[in-house]
Design a protein that fits this description.
Length: 262
């Protein structure tokens, strides 16, 4: 019900696995400067974490599932890839079967793509192979706090938010259809002992909620109507700052930082 009420007219009825979705989303992003600013902030945060966590590790920076807001728009040296071709991408790359040499990558970046991988363990095994020791993986994913859990269960008919899903594999039927937005919670929080046991080459360095949730939510993201005028952004930034003590309750996304052990 909430999805139908807030959906943009050009998004309503669009097959989420239709390649034309990328062109539609690109047009939405061009008219939403507040959302573009949120994406840029996320890109800059990923670069700061990359520099602070992966030191002088050599190799490529590669974004998976880049979509229409690739990190390369902010950081030109990042290779923009996705599982399907699209404008602004450098190459097509399957995150679960990466056509990259062993140890050739300094950092893998992912924005809201991990929960679309049908077999996350296969991806993490591939990450362990292609990332050089000392390098790692930076993922921005749906958070699991009270507000996020309620919203994500109601906003996307094509995706679920099921923290009780047994195992890690999802029933995804396409690049976008059938994902479980709670997958990062399941793998890195609920089943952390399993993650550490079965993927000993990857260290979970940190995970924390992001504080730009007010602007992201009110911008409508790529699929929904913007609820406030763009000129309100400075006031919304101030509100996010004031609400920082409650970020673990209110946040919509979180950052996951993994490092390849030496």
């Amino acid at each position: 019900m909430l999805e139908r009420l807030l959906a943009l007219p050009e998004i309503a009825g669009l097959d989420v696995d239709d390649p034309s979705r990328l062109a539609v989303h690109a047009a939405v992003l061009r008219r939403k400067p507040m959302l573009a600013h949120v994406f840029r902030e996320c890109h800059e945060l990923m670069l700061r974490l990359d520099r602070a966590t992966f030191g002088h590790t050599p190799g490529l920076r590669v974004e998976l599932g880049a979509g229409v807001a690739p990190v390369s728009g902010t950081l030109p040296d990042v290779l923009a890839t996705d599982v399907v071709p699209g404008p602004g991408l450098d190459r097509v790359l399957d995150a679960q079967d990466m056509d990259l040499p062993d140890g050739s990558v300094r950092a893998l970046y992912g924005q809201n793509c991990f929960h679309h991988f049908p077999d996350p363990q296969r991806f993490l095994t591939e990450a362990e192979r292609v990332v050089a020791p000392g390098g790692g993986v930076l993922l921005i994913e749906p958070y699991y706090g009270p507000v996020a859990s309620v919203l994500f269960k109601r906003l996307f008919a094509s995706e679920e938010f099921d923290t009780t899903m047994p195992g890690w594999r999802t029933d995804a039927t396409g690049p976008m259809q059938g994902a479980n937005q709670a997958l990062s919670y399941i793998v890195f929080v609920r089943d952390r002992e399993r993650f550490e046991r079965e993927l000993p080459g990857l260290e979970l360095v940190q995970t924390f909620p992001l504080g730009n949730y007010v602007r992201y939510l009110l911008s409508g993201g790529l699929n929904f109507r913007q609820l406030v005028p763009s000129f309100s952004e400075p006031a919304l930034r101030a509100l996010e700052l004031a609400l920082r003590p409650a970020v673990r309750v209110l946040a919509l996304h979180h950052m996951v930082v993994l490092r390849r052990r030496a």
